[in-house]
Input
Amino acid sequence: MTTPSPTANVLSMTEVSAPNFDLNDEHRSLLEQMTRSARAHFSHDAAQRDLEGKWPENGFRRLADMGVLGASVPEQYGGAGFDLFSAGLVGQAIGRIDPAVSTSWQSHDNLCVNNLYQNGNEVQRRKYLPGLTDGSRVGAIGMTEPDAGSDALGGMATMAVRDGDSYVLNGGKTFITNGPIADVVLVYAKTAPERGKKGISAFIVEKSFAGFSASSPFDKMGIRASPTGALYFDDCRVPAENLVGAENNGIAVMMSGLDIERAFCSMMVLGMSERAVELSVEYAKSRHQFGRRIGDFQMIQSKLAEMYVGLETMRGIVYRALAMANAVGAGQAGRGEIHKLSAAAFMYAGETCMRICDEAVQIFGGSGFMRDTEVNQLYRSAKIQEIGGGTKEIRRLIIAREMLAD
Ligand SMILES: Cc1cc2nc3c(=O)[nH]c(=O)nc-3n(C[C@H](O)[C@H](O)[C@H](O)COP(=O)(O)OP(=O)(O)OC[C@H]3O[C@@H](n4cnc5c(N)ncnc54)[C@H](O)[C@@H]3O)c2cc1C
Output
């Protein structure tokens, strides 16, 4: 009987390729290229825009110059033709430079444009995508209402009634990113209220449609340069051809979009957290007290170490969730593993970003409390990451519901 060589096992183990927990070279290079481009296009006026609460002049033209509009839409419609994961890296890159721009970009590009590409018919794609991908038109998504936030489906009161070859919309939406500047909005409305959540439909509404109007931008604590506002529908007539998907099937459009959104938006949160850690390390090295750099004090080191662990853990779950969303595609989102993991990634990212930014401000001391510092801007902008796209409480409900499902 021959004794197996002790190296045989080792060799067979090395033949099994190890899972890759990091970006490949192409992804890394895209992320760095996009970070440089976002810095060149947006960093010079970011602080001033944040203080004034103003969307950058020609903001969407600048994004078009970066080549990131319609990031996950094929080139035949004017998009960049990236897969969803690569498009998410764009969000991470812009998040490092300007969270407000990243927020408006992802609402336009993922929530509206990607959703239209995934769920729109060919006529709708050809009509709307080119303008949304060349920077001439701005997109938004309208789901939340004054009395329908976390219970967006159950509480929805906006109605769409069929009248000949159009639908007549009445009601209103609130807290809509890009609402005050949007040209095209993907709007959810009830078409069969008696059917509850199964009586909702999705519509493409143009700013120019009679009966549509939008508020001025709201005054927010963070992401101040991203315009958020209310939309009003007052006998707003929408051509029937602007119905997206089948009538009363809006829930499928919405739920698949929300999973993709949670995985996608976590990338911006990762970018913001990276920047907060980077600024903290720089400051810990340059600020001196008691004759030493503050980074020499163990309590500051402890903060930095915990920020690093949170950041790297976030990176793992966020990349994993987006890679899964990329693999399953929009058709299978809205249920099962991706529903759970995307909620988990967004929950972890949002809460950890908030903690990281809190410690970053602490490391900066009094300077961090000043509104015009970048670290203060990040801190104020982190809070929305626990609220928008489903609050941190709702993310927990989604995760637990999936865990307990039979
Ligand atoms: C800056 C900004 C941008 C936004 N952009 C958009 C957009 O582009 N499009 C869009 O449609 N919406 C948008 N929203 C809306 C956002 O998605 C909602 O604010 C969010 O879903 C929460 O709804 P709400 O504000 O009505 O809070 P509510 O639903 O009223 O919740 C209030 C509190 O109660 C908790 N709560 C509610 N229900 C439960 C429950 N069952 N169990 C435990 N706790 C619960 C919540 O977690 C929260 O803490 C945006 C919001 C903001 C602030």
Residues 25-137 form a domain with the Butyryl-Coa Dehydrogenase, subunit A; domain 1 fold (CATH 1.10.540.10). The chain has three domains: 25-137, 140-244, 250-404.
